[in-house]
Amino acid sequence: MRAENIKDFLLRLFFEWGAKIYSKKLASGPEAELRRDFLSFVSAEPNDIILDVGCGPGWLAIWAAKHVREVVGCDRSKRIIEIARRNASVACVRNVSFQTADATSLPFPDNFFDIVMATTVIYLLPDAYKGFAELVRVAKPDGAIVTLDPDVSISPKKMWAYAKANRMSFKDAAKLVSWSYSARMYYPFPEEKLRGLFEKAGLKNVVLGRRLDGMVWFGKGEKPL
Predict the structure, then answer these.
(1) Calpha distance 225→223 (Å, rounded)
(2) Is 75 helix (H, G, I), strand (E, B) or coil?
(3) 174 Cβ neighbours under 8 A, 6+ residues apart
(4) Residue 194 belongs to what H/E stretch?
(5) In degrees rounded to 5, what are phi and psi of residue 151?
(6) In a domain, 163, yes or no
(7) Is residue 156 part of a domain?
(8) Residue-range definition of the domain harbouring residue 68
């Protein structure tokens, strides 16, 4: 079995069987704070319709739905979509919906969403350009594509140092360190490759921002009219 297939199998296994653990992990702590910061970076408007690709347990979509007209979340894991729906129901948020879908073959029409978000998704794909092209396809002209992915510099050692410098609890530090271990297994981005995704897609007004002492990228670009 090819290395890419093994990685994909392990990823699918985790999100099906570890869905409850992952939901609790993202509900609070530093990864939740990172995603709330990401929402500010997204800069959505009240009338926007947003697609959250690779939505996981739905926390980001639920938080975003409180500020916009509608949010659609999608993820290829059936189990995690069930949990996302339950999380939205408990939160009494009704303008968010969830469905199963693969990031590389989205079941949505061209030019449909005002904003397309993908948090910790694109770096998992062996063919990042194919996945990114799908984000662009379903965004409206003048709509935004916004991503969150790890930088190639991410490491457990650097993450422990970051957590210590920010006086995090052991529990919160462990969350970030575990992410750094898993991130190293896949395809974190050097700046030139991430910028290349946006530029080769023809996006304008590209903005890249670093978080967590440079170990995480926020990226945003606008689809031309």
Answers:
(1) 7
(2) strand
(3) none
(4) helix 191-200
(5) -85, 155
(6) no
(7) no
(8) 3-150+190-222
Dihedral sign from CA coordinates of 128, 131, 135, 138: positive
**Domain-embedded: residue 164:** no
Mean of the per-residue pLDDT values for the chain?
93
Residue 37: give its domain's CATH number: 3.40.50.150
Split into its structural domains, the chain has a count of: 1
Structure tokens that stand for 216 in this block: 């995480």
Token pair in block for residue 64: 């975003």
Q: What are phi and psi of 220, to 5 degrees?
A: -150, 140
CA 124, chain centre distance (Å):
10
DSSP β-ladder status, 139-150 and 113-119: parallel
The answer to whether position 174 is within a domain reads no
Q: Report how far residue 34's alpha carbon sits from residue 87's, in angstroms, rounded to the nearest whole number.
A: 19
For tokens 């190293």, what's the residue? 184
Q: Where are the alpha helices (DSSP H) in 52-124?
A: 59-65, 78-90
The H-or-E segment that residue 73 falls in is: strand 70-75
Q: Could you tell me the pLDDT band of residue 23, with boundaries at 50, 70 and 90?
A: confident
- Which pLDDT band holds residue 9 (cuts at 50, 70, 90)? low
User: Which two three-digit tokens encode residue 34?
Assistant: 């990172």
